[in-house]
């Protein structure tokens, strides 16, 4: 499932926002992310970070690994749940692809569940396919707002955060 939005910002600005897990809770359109990321403040291919989450009133942390990265063009991470160090659920990918154009950047935001382990457990019960499209559209709207704020003189959202990993 993919959604698209043209945002009046450069691919560089958008990539910097997306590659910093400290921005992810503000970008989230699903209401599931609670923030408090643990990991690098600027993601690279292969990096792992965790994120505070909540679903159906239950708090938890998910584990994410950057599995695709082309600077200023593409970033994707897979989200998993583990049990004693083994991946038991998840594996779906959250992907952003940035296409520069005359109006700014066309952002393609994809939720790729074809990689998921136990998809009937991790995708169907929470009705992800049905509720993800509007959530992802809200995420792109949030990205547009953050990018506009980032471009204001004297405003800096991309902060130097302490590495907690």
How is this structure best described in words?
- The protein is α+β, with helices and mostly antiparallel strands and 165 residues long.
- It has a single domain (2-150), classed as Alpha-D-Glucose-1,6-Bisphosphate, Chain A, domain 4.
- Helix content is 24%, strand content 41%.
- A hairpin with a 2-residue loop joins strand 6 (86-101) and strand 7 (104-112).
- The model is unreliable at 158-165 (pLDDT under 50).
Task: Give a short summary of the structure.
By secondary structure, the protein is of the alpha+beta class.
Rg calculated over all Cα atoms: 15 Å
The rough form would be described as: globular
CATH architecture: 2-Layer Sandwich
Order of SSEs, N→C?
EHHEEEEEEHH
Give the DSSP E fraction (strand runs of 2 or more residues): 35-45%
């Amino acid at each position: 499932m993919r959604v698209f939005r043209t945002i009046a910002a450069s691919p560089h600005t958008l990539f910097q926002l997306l590659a910093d897990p400290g921005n992810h809770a503000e970008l989230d359109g699903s209401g599931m992310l609670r923030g408090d990321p643990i990991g690098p403040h600027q993601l690279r291919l292969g990096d792992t970070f965790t994120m505070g989450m909540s679903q159906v009133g239950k708090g938890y942390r998910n584990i994410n690994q950057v599995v695709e990265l082309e600077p200023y063009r593409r970033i994707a991470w897979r989200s998993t749940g583990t049990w004693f160090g083994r991946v038991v659920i998840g594996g779906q990918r959250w992907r952003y692809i940035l296409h520069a154009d005359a109006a700014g950047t066309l952002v393609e935001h994809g939720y790729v569940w074809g990689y998921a382990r136990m998809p009937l457990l991790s995708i169907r019960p929470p009705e992800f396919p049905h509720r993800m499209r509007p959530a992802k559209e809200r995420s792109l709207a949030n990205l547009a707002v953050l990018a506009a704020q980032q471009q204001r003189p004297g405003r800096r959202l991309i902060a130097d955060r302490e590495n907690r990993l």
